[in-house]
């Protein structure tokens, strides 16, 4: 059997009761070669024909505004400015969570290597660039070497380095999670310009996450699954070896310069300050990108960005981009409601519902009260049980659902949902949204206030080695993270709550509860999306050109469609593009141009079939690729958001975030939409202002756009839900489609107010 000895060398492989079973599986396991560890795989596809790249650029140029090439003042050596699309958040089964999600018993489709990710990005989604971002917590020294080599191999078949078909960036994800809101900093992707050993860290740098080194299924369960699902037996018998490799990697010694540590240890950084310090010790060019920030499945309810906005926990040189949208949902929008609140003593409590928000802790009390009343218990006693249920839920944090025995997804209705947000994540946390981050100010040094200056991107956060999955809204079980047993016979292996419904709440006891079950994965299935993209205004297709655009923050994010977007400040001789910081003594004037994405033809283009072959194309792409027609979607409207960062620490944020501040309807022209506008109140306000644009397409069907699929009463209250399950309860052929308006978010333009006198003094100096 594919089991290795534990650190103490005493792992039990059989007992008198299961000797026969063990003997059988030993013979089966060795016969199938299941002991072989994961490797980087083999890249199959070669370089995409140059004519395909020329056609892509020509199509874009035919609809680009006439000023697009000349406004920047940087067009040199006949290099055409263009918009390139990529995905800076891609996992393979080198990530431990992706590994578990790939198990056939969980509805997965098997191991997906970095080589698979390369072929998918090149031929299935036909991206211009991508990065690998497996969780550092599970990247052993061997897997880091495999990762680096695979990225080099992917770049090696990209053709001309100055005009490659695909640029592959190296990176990892620092996946920090803590149930204490004061110690939770969230997940960040780190990507590097270079790929050679001399110019990248010798190890990925992880966050402390001991649970990730433990197999979620015990040996007995692995053996039973191997017999139950005999066709995939090799997979189950290889689980223990995968986790043993992680567990047997020693931790690096603390307090030593990262360059002096051995390459064969797992290096930890407990918080962003430690992570940035280690990146400084390496000294390589890198970008750090917070993501999934408002995703409640991992983020404690009272967490905010405030503790990260200081000169220790934020690095303004590296942490320059913010992932506003991914397959986890939209982290852009701020609201003034909260899932939990704190009283005067700092104790957390469950707030009452408002007209537009139902806290899940409150719903826990309602569930218990309803059950209690159905049992014929006196109303006073039921009220006390409801209060206790709310208290238990609050104490359990992100695992509050486990305090309601026998809970089902349908019991929770639409609690935690942001009903007026675009494609909200499950249990949206407004205090960690992009708008919140941009509006707060650190006043630790009153003479030099400190702010975040993020550019906006989208990406997929895909865990199936599938970069840029949003090109078609199809095949939900393939293109999203839909996760669950494929049939009833595997139900017990995926259900975390085996208790029946009871008319009272129980405190959470985490002993014996697996990492997956601590999070409400079953409910999360209704919120998985196919993922977004990052677009870069680039002076070419090469690695350096794309990196330069990322560093300049001349980027924007999309919800998956390849919308074209330009957002400029019309100031001086040359307009100032999105992502820029400047100052003005006059009212600023802006211009926005947006063009809708191509409608997609079914199937795959000929070059994809030629590059991968029919069999691999079907296995890797599901027979569907990015395959643009000659017709574009129309832009419905352009929305402009204005944020005025705090000038004093007590300014309420809901008065500083104006969303939308301006709205401009578009004529429905497939050639795009162009508008100009001015902030007539900027000078009068005498304070900094931040502006960004949303280009919004006409509605089209999107996976899980209606997430829980509520049934509403006449009063507009959600009274029943029809979840989109990840398991057999929702057919694999059901894509759970609903109309939604795909969009693109520009990076902000940051404008400080400067009086005329200040500008004159600056000119004189």
Explain how this protein is built.
This protein is an alpha+beta fold. The strands form eight sheets. Strands 1, 2, 3, 4, 7, 13, 14, 17, 21, 22, 24, 29 and 30 form a 13-stranded mixed β-sheet that branches. Strands 16-15-18-23 form a four-stranded antiparallel β-sheet, with no helix packed on it. Helix 10 (360-374) runs antiparallel to helix 11. The chain is globular and about 75 Å long.
Helix and strand arrangement:
Layout lengths: L18 H14 L17 H12 L20 E9 L5 H6 L12 H11 L4 E4 L8 H16 L10 E9 L11 E6 L12 E2 L12 H10 L4 H5 L1 H9 L19 E2 L3 H11 L3 E6 L29 E6 L2 E2 L10 E2 L5 E2 L10 H15 L4 H18 L37 H6 L15 E4 L17 H4 L11 H4 L20 H4 L2 H4 L8 E6 L4 H9 L3 E4 L5 E6 L6 E2 L3 E4 L4 E7 L2 E3 L5 H7 L1 H8 L6 E5 L2 E9 L13 E9 L7 E6 L3 H4 L3 E9 L2 E4 L6 E3 L5 E4 L15 E4 L2 E4 L2 E5 L2 H9 L1
Parallel strand pairs: 1-2, 2-3, 5-6, 8-12, 17-30
Antiparallel strand pairs: 1-13, 3-4, 4-7, 8-9, 10-11, 13-14, 14-29, 15-16, 15-18, 18-23, 19-20, 21-22, 21-24, 24-29, 24-30, 25-28, 26-27
Helix pairs in contact: 4-5, 10-11, 18-19
What is this structure, in a nutshell?
The chain is built from 21 helices and 30 strands. With 765 residues, the protein is an alpha+beta fold.
Overall 3D form: globular
Topology, number of strands: 30
Derived from helix and strand composition plus strand pairing, the structural class reads alpha+beta
Q: Supply Rg.
A: 26 Å
What's the rounded overall pLDDT mean?
90
Taking the sheet with the most strands, its summary is: 13 strands, mixed
Helix content: 10-25%
Span between termini: 77 Å
User: What fraction of the residues are assigned to beta strands by DSSP?
Assistant: 15-25%
- What is the number of helices? 21
Low-confidence stretches: 1-19, 26-33, 70-78, 759-765
